[in-house]
Amino acid sequence: MKNEIYPCLWFDGKARTAADYYIRLFQSGSIVEDNGMVVIFELHGKKYMGLNGGPRFPFTEAISFVIPCDTQEEIDYYWNTLVQDGGEESMCGWCKDKFGLSWQIVPSRLGEWVKEPQRAQRVFTALSAMRKLDIEILSNA
Q: Whole-model pTM?
């Protein structure tokens, strides 16, 4: 028996709007099912469920999605798109979209930059002073 595991995202009546937004954002995916209460959608071949659950349980930073980016242009695109129209900037590459979902927009190479302890300290010092991350500054830290 195969047990498929996928996230359920609780929205305040905007699950279809959010699913359409994420499909446009990632330029990938589709709506699989929409029965009004639940919207099943795919992004880059991964399944998600959006639930129109109401206002009782808003998103918190305890759950976030990570978007690894190879270029500054990618970081700029995701960051700028997610924080516009009601999103919020935070620190260290974190932001929230207009639905309140948290995202980490990070360089793909971040893991390799922090392998060596002394460099890791320099990278984290630079990173902690930023909102949107700057690949050039971090790669030179």
A: 0.93
